[in-house]
Amino acid sequence: MRTLRDPRQTRLFDPFDSVLTERTRQALLEDWPGVFRHVLLELMPVEILGGSFDPSIGRPTKELYSMAGLLVIKAFMDWTEEEAVTAYRFHLDVHYALNLAPQAEDLSLRTLQRYTRLFVDNDLAGEVMHTVTTTLVRECGIRIDQQRLDSTHVFSDMASFGRTRMMGVTVKRFLTQLKRHDRIAYQSLDEELRQRYTPSVHQLFGDRGKDEASRRLQRQQVAEDMHELIHRFADHPQHNQRTTYKLLEQVFHEQCVVSEEQVILKSKTGGDVVQNPSDPDATYDGHKGQGYQVQIAETCHPDNEVQLLSAAVPQTAVASDTAALPEVLDELEADQLLPESLLADALYGSDDNVQHAKERGVELVAPTKEGARQVEEANTNTDTNTNTNTNTNTNTNTNTDRLTLDDFTINAETETVERCPEGHAPERCVTDPNTGKTTTTMPAHVCSQCPSFDRCPMRKVRKTYRLEHTAKQRRLATRRREEQTDAFRDRYRRRGGIEGTNSGIKRRTGMGRLRVRGKTRVFSEILLRLAGWNILRAAACPTLQKRVAERAQQALAGGYCSPFLAYCGHFALPEALPQRIRLRYVPFSAFSHQPLRACA
To answer: Would you give the DSSP letter of residue 455?
Structure first.
C-alpha cells in the first residue's frame, strides 16, 4: 500500500519547534536542506516510484517522497548505503529536508536497496535531473543565453586490468560457472588448463616472468585457451547461453583473430572493447583511461548569482567529444534551455558542429584544432602570459604576413571569388556541384607581377594561376583569423571556468570514482550527483534563499495553528504557549475573527 504525505500540506503544529532554535532553523533554510524541503521535495517522481505498489492493498510502504529524496541526497552526499540508512534514522538535517518528524525513523538496508533498484529500473535519475535543473534555473533567475560545454571522466567500481589479465579473468569466470553447474564437464578439461586459472584474480599468472617475452607468451597461451573453450562448448546449450560464455566469445573476438586455424592476437583493438568482465559496458579513452564520461553544459553569464549545470549526457569513455554536440543540444532543447552562445574547446569545434549549432540558433564558440594552442596559451597565468604574448604576437605576425582565403572577397552564398587581396577580379570562377569545390583562375599578367604572390595561396599550374577552395575551408580560414584577435580571447576566457566545475563536482560529490558498475547504474549515479551539485550551488544563491525563507514562513502561517490561536485568544490562553509560537502568529486584534498574519 502506497504511503504518501504531500510536502505542500501543512501540519497543525510544526514538529521542529521543540528541537530547533531560530539560529539552527535559519541555518537549515540557508543550506541545501531548506532548498530541498521547500522547493524540490514536492517534485520527486513518486507517481512512477509508487507504480510498483498497490494503492490500497498490502503492507504500507515507506513514505515515498522521503525515499525518493533520500536516494537523491545519498548520491550527492557520496554516502554508502549504510551511511544513508543512518542519516535517515538519526540526522536532523535529513529529517527536515525530507519532511519527516524529528524523531528516530526506521529503515533497513534491504528496503533502501529495493528502492534503489526501482529508481534505476524506471530510469528516474534522468527525470530528477530534468526537474531539478529546470526548477532551479527558474527559481534562481538564471540567464541561460551564455553557456559552456566540456566532458569529464568517471571511473566505475572496477579494477584496472592489463590485456593479459583481463583475458585471463574472463576465462576464470567461465570456468568457475562451469565447475559450479557441470562438474563432469569441468573435470574433463585438461588438468594443466584448469590449474592455470585456479589462483585468485590478483594472483593470476603471478608465477610468470615479468619481461616482455614472457608476457607475450602468456597472452598467446590465454588466447589459445579461450579459443579451445569456445570451440568445445559452442554446441552445448547448457553452457553457451550463459553470460560468462557470451562474454568469453566477445572478448576473444575483440582481442584475437583466427587465421588458418591459428590464433593471432590483434596488435590494436581500439577503445570500444571490454576492459573488465565485471563491467563489460566500460570502454577505453586513450587520454583518460578506462570507464565512462559525461558531457556537461553549464551556464556562464556574468550576471548570474550562481552558475548551474543545464544539461548532462552520460557516455562510455570511448565516445568522441566531437560527435557529442548534437546530443547535448537535443538535451538542452528538450528542457527549453538552449543558449544563444556555447563555449567549448577545440574537440567540439569542427565545422560540421558549428554549422549544426547554427541551424539550431546556437553560436558555437570554439577554436579550430590548429588555433587551439594559441588560445590556451593566451589564457594561462600572468607570468606565463608575458612570455606567451611574445610568442603569440610572433605567430600573429606570421599569420598576418601569409595571406589566406579570408583575405579574398568571396560571396558566401555562391562561393564565388570576387576580388583577390590586391583587389583584382578573377578571370574565371567555377563551382563543381558534385564536390562543392570552387576553382578560381586569375589573369596571368596580374599574378606574375603581384608583389604579394609569395604570400598568396594562389598557385601556378603550368601557365595558369589557380586557387581551389570549399565552403568549409573558407569558414575555417575566417575562424582562424578571428581566433587571433583579443576580442575572441576575452570572450573565450570564460570557458575555462567549467574545468573548476568538473573538479568541484568530483571533490564534493565523489563522482570521480563511483561505487557501482554497469552502464545503467553508473549513468543513474552520474545524473543524481549532477542534480545534487545544482542543489548545492543553488543553496548559495541569495535570490533562492529569500524565496525559501518566504515559503517556510508561509508554511508555518498557513497551517491550522492560526485558527487555533485565534480561538484561544478569546480566553487569553496564548500567554501560556511558548514564546516562539506566539511570536510567529500575531492577530490583528485581541478579539478579532479576522485571519492572523505572519510575523515578518
So the answer is: G
Residue 435 predicted with pLDDT over 70 = yes
> What local confidence, expressed as pLDDT, does residue 373 receive?
52
Per residue in 548-559, pLDDT tens? 998 888 877 654
User: 156-166 pLDDT, tens per residue?
Assistant: 999 988 889 99
- Residue pair 422/450 in contact by the 8 Å Cβ criterion: yes
Over residues 573-586, the pLDDT tens digits come to: 455 555 555 555 44
Encode pLDDT of 239-258 as tens digits: 989 999 999 999 999 999 99
Cβ atoms of 421 and 446 closer than 8 Å: no
Helix (H, G, I), strand (E, B) or coil at 482: helix
> Please, what's the b/e burial string for 489-508 (b: 16 or more CB within 10 A of its CB; e: otherwise)?
beebebbbebeebbeebbeb
Distance, CA of 9 to CA of 17 (rounded, Å): 17
Residue with cell 573453450: 229
Distance set, CA 394 to CA 388, 391, 401 (Å) = 10, 5, 11
With a cut of 70, say whether residue 594 has pLDDT above it: no
- Using alpha carbons, select from 16, 217, 25 the residue that is nearest to residue 99: 16
* Whether the Cβ atoms of residue 346 and residue 369 lie closer than 8 Å to each other: yes
Q: CA torsion angle for 250, 256, 260, 262 (degrees, to 10)?
A: -110
Return all residues near 462 (Cβ < 8 A) that are at least 6 apart: none
Residue 547 backbone phi and psi in degrees, to 5 = -70, -35
pLDDT in tens, 253-292: 999 999 888 999 999 888 999 999 999 999 999 888 899 9
- Joined grid coordinates for residue 593: 475573527
CA 480 → CA 374, 388, 456, 528, distances in Å?
A: 10, 18, 16, 39
Q: If DSSP codes are grouped into helix, strand and coil, which group holds residue 468?
A: strand
Closest CA to 328 of 360, 283, 372, 376: 360
Q: How far apart are CA 393 and CA 387, in angstroms?
A: 10
In this structure, the dihedral spanned by the alpha carbons of residues 486, 491, 493 and 496, taken in order and rounded to 10 degrees, is -150
Show Cβ contacts of residue 91 under 8 Å, excluding neighbours closer than 6 positions: none
**Within a 10 A sphere around the Cβ of 79, how many other Cβ atoms?**
17
* Gap between the Cα atoms of 444 and 65, Å rounded: 80
